[in-house]
Design a protein that fits this description.
The chain is mostly beta strands and about 120 residues long. The protein contains no helices and 11 strands.
């Protein structure tokens, strides 16, 4: 049974940091490429960052490049999104998505989606 859970969201002041986690069980996590997406109310879903199944290659949206870091620990079946220098415009629900295949930017090609964790950046 495929299960994964996101955690680590919350309320943080501008300039602060958060680390999101996506913990998986019930499948071969190491085979999956993974991306983090976010969606704010009234806005389209946005790709934030992606990582290959072995963690060897990453990509980032221009809006978070240099501030966010995606990583994947296959031994722990967990992926992370370290977020620093947070801005109010980073406020959104953050979702991890997994694909049994190569890394892609196309959200429609992901097989599994988490339930999301809310990040709110406000003073």
């Amino acid at each position: 049974q495929v299960q994964f859970v996101e955690s680590g969201g919350g309320l943080v002041q501008p300039g602060g940091s958060l680390r999101l986690s996506c913990a998986a069980s019930g499948f071969s996590f190491s085979r999956y490429s993974l991306s983090w997406y976010r969606q704010a109310p009234g806005k389209e879903r946005e790709l934030v960052a992606g990582i290959t199944s072995d963690g060897g290659r990453t990509n980032y949206s221009d809006s978070v490049k240099g501030r966010f870091t995606i990583s994947k620990d296959n031994a722990k079946n967990t992926a992370y999104l370290q977020m620093t220098s947070l801005k109010p415009e980073d406020t959104a629900g953050y979702y991890c998505a997994l694909r049994d295949g190569s890394l892609t930017r196309n959200a429609l090609e992901y097989h599994y989606w988490g339930q999301g964790t809310q990040v709110t950046v406000s003073s």
